[in-house]
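Section 5.1 Outputs to date
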Amino acid sequence: MKIEEFTEKDIREASHLAYPVWGVNYIADGQDEKFGLLMCEYIIRYGWYGAPYAFKITDKGKMAGCILAGNIKQDNGYNEWIDELMPTFNDKQREAALALRDYFGNTSPKVYRYMQADKDLYLSFFLSAVQGCGKQLLAEVVAGAKRDGYEKLYLWTDSSCNHSYYARHGFEKVAEFKSDEWKTNSNNYLTYIYRKSL
């Protein structure tokens, strides 16, 4: 296993890595794989702030996980990216893309309220497809954040993810809430905010 810088060129491969987690949900909703991959790319672009807190871990040249973090003062242009694609979507795709955009737009400020931009780093995307990779990636971001004087690491996740992972790795849950942007069959679909002191 090798940890390397995650660059914008890696977003497409990361989208394929994320597809079994988030993209297949769009297939179940009647969309095609291409649209599911585009939504995965949008999720990753939401988290993409560039260096110095963007890493991937590879095994035999293939990505096994990635982690992206940044300062909330930065603008990463993810909404401009999806706006350019909107005219190519059908009505159902546009509705799904706008729901995801609303989810990001409504959830991010709830996290930012807890943060001090000059002291806290935002862990905006984290995915590991191989056991043990996530721990190494998280350690890399934590080491860099400490080196650069950050005091806390913040993130949000939801009940579709392995959110118990964070409690096992030194994060404390600071909030949980139901998000109305998603039409789900579960009343237990919650969003969580976590923080880790560095």
